[in-house]
Amino acid sequence: MVVEEYRGMMFVSHFLTSVLGLLFFNIFFELSGPEFLAGIILTSLLAGLPDLDSQHSRISRKHKKTSWLVRRFTKHRGALHSPFVLLVLACFLALPSLLFTDDIVKWVLLISIPLQLHAFTDFLAEKTSILYPLTRKKFGLGVFRTGSRSEKFFVDFLIILSLGFFLYLDKWFELTILLLTWLLTLPKQKFVFSKRKSIKK
Ligand SMILES: [Zn+2]
Predict the structure, then answer these.
(1) Which of 126, 136, 138, 183 has its CA 20 to 30 Å from the CA of residue 81?
(2) What pLDDT was estimated at residue 191?
(3) For residue 117, how far is its CA from the centre of ligand 1 (angstroms)?
(4) Phi and psi dihedrals of 191, rounded to 5?
(5) Residue boundaries of the structural domains of the chain
(6) Given pLDDT bands bounded at 50, 70 and 90, which one contains residue 10?
(7) Cβ neighbours of residue 28 under 8 Å, at least 6 residues apart?
(8) What phi, psi does 9 have (nearest 5°)?
């Protein structure tokens, strides 16, 4: 029996690349402790958000009604994978930060990290509506295949490269956070791959 396989990047890959983005952001913007913590929370909440446009994604299985509503307006890797739409969404989501800070730009950027990196990594692998609303036409680079070992190798390669970079710059905080996140998500990656194997015949 052949079970239809969902081909999309794993949540854990989006999460790891977003954490990576946050760590590089931290080097340049030197976030305070609470800001960095907020960044990590935003990353885990938002790294998978654009995939609300796919019925089979992890986030859609958790938020069925929201996903249903999103799918009334867009196809998978359509408008919700467009950098422009995601920037507008980030500006909207950052509005509550005005209650406690004047620096809304920093919060727009913090919220944008997981959203834009999701769109960018999907674009590296698959065709997405990267130029929406200019055109709905989809473009992609095909650097790796989503949901396959090449995706894991790509993410692992980025992480190893970054670990070397942080080590070179003596950025021990970034190095520790990245190493911890990578190790903690390792069992999750294995689980997904073994599950994928078992449904393929
Ligand atoms: Zn996606």
Answers:
(1) 183
(2) 47
(3) 10
(4) -60, -45
(5) 11-199
(6) confident
(7) none
(8) -65, 145
